Amino acid sequence: MEKKILVLGAGLISRPMIRYLLEIPDFYVTMASRTVSKAEKIIDNHPRGKAISLNVRDENLLEKLISESDLTVSLLPYIYHVKVAKICIKHKIPMVTTSYVSDDMIALDKEAKNAGILILNECGLDPGIDHMSAMIVIHKIEKNGGKILSFKSSTGALPAFETNNNPFGYKFSWAPRGVLLASKNPSKWIENGKIISYPGEQLFENYYIQDVPDIGSFENYPNRNSVPYKDIYGLKDAHTVYRGTFRMTGWCETFRKIAALGWLNEKPLSKFKGKTYGDLTRFLINAKSDEDLIISSARFLELTTYSTVIKRLEWLGLFSNETLPADKDNPLDYLNVITLKKMTLKPDQRDMIVMHHEFIVNYPTKKEFITSTFIDYGIPNADSAIARTVSLPAAIAVKMILKNKINLRGVHIPVIPEIYNPILDELKQMNIKFKEKVTNL
């Protein structure tokens, strides 16, 4: 009997998932997107797929589409997931997302169980593969009688080294606004038994340089709130629990200064009357109209005019006469436009995923340092690494749910063997696999 899958959204990461699901003979995929042409391009006239236009605010159509499906995947912005989940619960339709599970989503656990459905979140890359690849090591250590004293896990979605040809060391292979918004996240982690916490504006002040063996050296800054993972991962003996993000060197200081200038502000500036990026920078720092903007900005940021940060901001165009886009009205969205213009990964270029876990483990007779590392590259003129590693775990989960290989109910993330073992096994066949190294301490 044919299974109907509804996929909401047709963003940059969706293609590998859709093509995977379309290859399964008894699956039929409907892609619903505001920009239907994107979905049509991905479906590519496949006989078991169709693309339709959907504005997610059209609640009647949204509910109709969900009610007619056997499973719904939400690749929409995270703010819509709970809305979709409530409709799924109403019609007893299982749901999969690749986004972080929110408190509002967790609150739906009982309702999902009563409806007899699974709502699986965080089944992408980070979050997703990071959970699964960490848990398989954690459970193996526990089975062998070890106690994990320290756990660190970090991931970076970066340009491959040969395509790293701009001064930011970064290219957008997914929604740039999401990257910019993540630059405002507060951070919290556990270090040597103490909880360390910083507000969003200090995020980029707390980075260190990490050498990832056989790959390279990166800046590592904290990724959101790591504290709950002590319980989520069952790390009861761990005195350090840290989750981080990799970037090429120079990123953290540069974005700390972009934040200091006010370019991450999402609110419209009512008194601003300028027309260019340079005009807005001058307005944000209240610089005199007759003074060189680079000199004014360097002084405001307590930098020299020849510093690499100033050179990066100049290259990006924040001091330039480039006209601000007329359809935007706030600094962050203006910044989004210019970063997308200057820092987009081109179709013939490769991106790179680096994921690296570190464990310090105590056994009754020995102590070990264990690393588990994964690197993946995009395919030029085909799928990016970020698209593959975000969407394929979710696609495999969809197949498992519809073929009754997962019998969980309620709101979950992939931290139990029933979910992560088969997903990791299949990813390994796609060459998405980890290299483990053990060193005696």
Query: CATH topology of the largest domain, what is it called?
Result: Dihydrodipicolinate Reductase, domain 2
Mean pLDDT: 95
Class by SSE composition: alpha/beta
Domain tally: 3
Distance between the termini: 56 Å
Shape: globular
Please write the CATH class name of the largest domain: Alpha Beta
CATH 4th-level superfamily of the largest domain: Dihydrodipicolinate Reductase, domain 2
CATH architecture verdict of the largest domain: 2-Layer Sandwich
Characterize this entry briefly.
By secondary structure, this protein is an alpha/beta fold.
Question: Can you offer a commentary on this structure?
Answer:
The chain is α/β, with parallel strands linked by helices and 441 residues long. The protein has 3 domains: 3-121, NAD(P)-binding Rossmann-like Domain (Rossmann fold, 3-Layer(aba) Sandwich); 129-249 and 346-384 and 433-440, Dihydrodipicolinate Reductase, domain 2, CATH 3.30.360.10; 268-329, no CATH class. The protein is 34% helix and 23% strand. The chain is built from 16 helices and 16 strands. It has helices at 15-22, 36-43, 59-67, 81-91, 103-106, 109-115, 129-143, 176-182, 229-232, 251-261, 277-284, 293-300, 308-316, 331-342, 385-402, 417-429, and strands at 3-8, 27-33, 49-53, 71-74, 95-97, 118-120, 147-159, 187-191, 194-198, 208-212, 216-222, 240-247, 351-362, 367-377, 410-412, 435-440. The strands form 3 sheets. Strands 3-2-1-4-5-6-15 form a 7-stranded parallel sheet, sandwiched between helices. A 7-stranded mixed sheet has the order 10-11-12-7-13-14-16, with helices on one face. Helix 4 links the parallel strand 4 and strand 5 (95-97). Helix 1 packs parallel to helix 15 (385-402). The radius of gyration is 23 Å and the shape is globular. It starts with a strand and ends with a strand. The mean pLDDT is 95.
